[in-house]
Amino acid sequence: xxxxxxxxxxxxxxxxxxxxxxxxxxxxxxxxxxxxxxxxxxxxxxxxxxxxxxxxxxxxxxxxxxxxxxxxxxxxxxxxxxxxxxxxxxxxxxxxxxxxxxxxxxxxxxxxxxxxxxxxxxxxxxxxxxxxxxxxxxxxxxxxxxxxxxxxxxxxxxxxxxxxxxxxxxxxxxxxxxxxxxxxxxxxxxxxxxxxxxxxxxxxxxxxxxxxxxxxxxxxxxxxxxxxxxxxxxxxxxxxxxxxxxxxxxx
Length: 251
Hints:
By secondary structure, the protein is α/β, with parallel strands linked by helices.
């Protein structure tokens, strides 16, 4: 179901473009993680990539994240380049999934910043994971279709926007912030990428984290051995930061 999007005569990568009230729906058979420059080919101020999520774990999930690479560009994008985030859109999308999905098979979660493409327009991925069995499910596809339709057709609310440092790839702290607080999360540097985080990359994450950057939220337990390096770096740069565990009163 296309939720009111009508086929137009405009073509994109061999497929008809669909449109509704000035919003355009583009489809491509190309791997989106390698679609550098796609923002020069399409209209719009920002882009949502609605795709599949693949993981060896086979984890059943609906997830969202910002594209970008903290290190080498091993799956599209550019080395140590982060895209401009859409924290408010991601928050509204993730929360809307819970409105449209009544089951308990799929976990709804915000992932860390990873993979390509690297483009100039603000963007995000929203995905169904993590195997062919889930990708083929009509009910899962319908949830994402409804969510995307909702967020592109409604105003984006203003939130306190934060960057999260530490924790896992499937980031529990970011997800709790999204669902339990008024904060919206853009970029997330997980524990396994913290050794790559330097002042230049942190500055980039903050500058590309949306329009209302508030602070860096630290997953204190999830910083590991980098804790002693990250906190002084934040202080030296004059970046406001707070432990998630203190914000949430979790021990």
